[in-house]
Amino acid sequence: MPVCREQDFWIQQSTKECSFESQYEIGKELGRGATSCVFKCQRRGLPKTWAVKVLLKNTHRRVAKADIGVLLGLDHKNLVRFKEVFESKSRIFIVQELVTGGELFERVVNIGEYSEAVAAKAVKDIIAGIGYLHRCGYVHRNLKPENLLYENLSEDSPLKIADFAQSSVLSTEVDMSSVCGSPGYAAPELLKGERFGSAIDMWAIGIITYILLSGLEPFTCENPSELFKKILKGQYEFTSPEWDEIGVNGKDFIRKLLVVDPNKRLSAEAACRNCWVIGMGASATPLHEVASRIKTFNEQQKSKGPGLEVCSTPHSRAVSRAGPPREMSPLPGVDLHELAAALPDAGDKDRENSPSLLPSEVEIVEPDTDGSGI
Ligand SMILES: Nc1ncnc2c1ncn2[C@@H]1O[C@H](COP(=O)(O)OP(=O)(O)OP(=O)(O)O)[C@@H](O)[C@H]1O
To answer: How many angstroms separate the CA atoms of 117 and 249, rounded?
Structure first.
């Protein structure tokens, strides 16, 4: 277990006594997710700028006080650092490091010489950050390209994973945005509602790597039920001609991640030693067509928007065979009944038993009444 460095400069426990607004001045919007809005902000009277993620609170989403100190103390060059957490009657404010280098896929499409070697370097950074998180006992649960941000605009800027503390800072209810908000990156065990662990992040890295090397998604189908069946069976191909110029090591790495059985999936520890990840067989030959397909993919994703508001039902129920009410589907354009229909028969026992990824002794903090209006 690595030592999580705590510096007074960074770590301030959930500041319950004062409102976010009394401490910070809020600035321009930086982006939006399915369930949140991110703004630039500045501590009153101090020059440094930060980012703040503002989430609406609801019955299932409150700040979990326990462990905030440790979480905010997680310190790795490939993780966006968290500074402090505030809550008002209706909102949660997660103050974090402001990164300015843009999203991974945006950079890929804008650099002239995109190659397997560039992709491998990005994947190496993602695995380093995720490996640290896993060693500290946390699972990200919401890994997707939008959460992969460069620290700055320099060519050698580290790639940072955002959003890592969110799933754990929030309450014990499983947050549907992380389970179902990004169906394209959800591991089979998540879709089945089974017990899950750190392997779900490795599946997401497999999907991200597949897209990075081809500009295509591994699992696609017009019919949602058929799509879920494919994911549950791990049915994908390295299509020709798109994959023709990609070497065997990159494909082999993906094969080891997109494994349906989470116990047989490559761990972060093993992945960081993988030969393709460390640069062997990751060619520096420019991949112009891949970059242009990633551009199209990115544009399509952005045009879809951030998706629907989350359903706050624990996912074990949300994907149960009976299926939830239709209006609760948090999957953009996807009916959870389709997902329920695609599920295999086995697994109901596990589904009832989905764990929280939080440490066991979590205290749920009651909402305060500062009435912050953001
Ligand atoms: N620390 C940060 N610094 C700068 N920009 C950020 C930061 N965090 C997020 N952003 C920007 O805000 C956008 C939305 O971030 P957010 O975390 O809300 O997205 P999301 O993960 O898709 O949301 P959700 O958690 O609701 O699924 C990001 O895609 C990014 O462009």
So the answer is: 12
| Cα 90 to averaged position of ligand 1 atoms, centre (Å) | 20
Total residues found in the chain within this entry: 374
Residue 21's CATH number: 3.30.200.20
Number of domains in the chain: 2
Are the C-beta atoms of 174 and 315 separated by less than 8 Å?
A: yes
Does the annotation flag 124 for ligand binding? no
Residue numbers of the domain that contains 18: 6-96
> Would residue 366 count as lying in a domain?
no
Q: Does residue 53 have its Cβ closer than 6 Å to ligand 1? A: yes
Among the candidates 96, 123, 150, a domain finishes at 96
Most confident of 18-32, 175-189, 315-329: 18-32
Q: Which of 96, 124, 155 is the last residue of a domain?
A: 96
Q: Find where tokens 């640069």 sit.
A: 279
> What does the pLDDT look like over 81-139, one tens digit per residue?
988 888 888 888 889 999 999 999 999 988 888 999 999 999 999 999 999 999 988 88
Q: Is the CB of 151 under 6 A from ligand 1?
A: no
User: In whole angstroms, what is the distance from residue 173 CA to residue 194 CA?
Assistant: 15
- Residue 322 pLDDT > 60: no
**Tens-digit pLDDT profile for residues 188-220:** 998 898 888 999 999 999 999 999 999 999 999
CATH number at residue 129: 1.10.510.10
In the numeric block, which tokens belong to residue 305? 């928007």
